[in-house]
Amino acid sequence: MRPVELLAFLVAAFGMIKLIVVMTQPQGWISFVKKFYAYPRLTMAVSLLAALIILKILLVELTIVQIFAAMAFMMALIATGLAAFAKEILDFSQTILKKKNFLSRAWPLVSAWTVLIIWVLVVIFR
Q1: Could you tell me if residue 62 is left (phi over 0), alpha (psi between -120 and 50 degrees) or otherwise beta?
Q2: pTM tops 0.90, yes or no
Q3: Distances (CA, A) of 38 to 29, 34, 35, 58, 64
């Protein structure tokens, strides 16, 4: 199995497990999520490291432009799911954006997106 196939398999397996748990024992899923986010800085660091490793694996077979195109597909799917909870999402967003330290808390994400956006624009327009 190639690394990109392994990644796809892991996403499919994790997705199936999540669906089964959420449909049969939603509180079990909440318990997992609480543990996952119990240490936000650690979660952020591990997630960013995972993102970098996954990006490296993907770049063996895809370009950054292709990866961004695939992200457009995922964004559409995520928006479809979040639309069912529009009021809650909007309330949550307002709460987060009102915090004065929003950007300082989100700097790893903001930095990663900035680098990736610049990278894809340079590739497209060079």
Answers
A1: beta
A2: no
A3: 14, 6, 5, 29, 32
CB 5 within 8 A of CB 62: no
| Nearest alpha-carbon partner for 69 in 123, 27, 22, 8 | 123
Query: Per-residue pLDDT tens for 72-126?
Result: 999 999 999 999 999 999 999 999 989 888 888 899 999 999 999 999 999 999 9
Q: Which two tokens stand for residue 6?
A: 């392994």
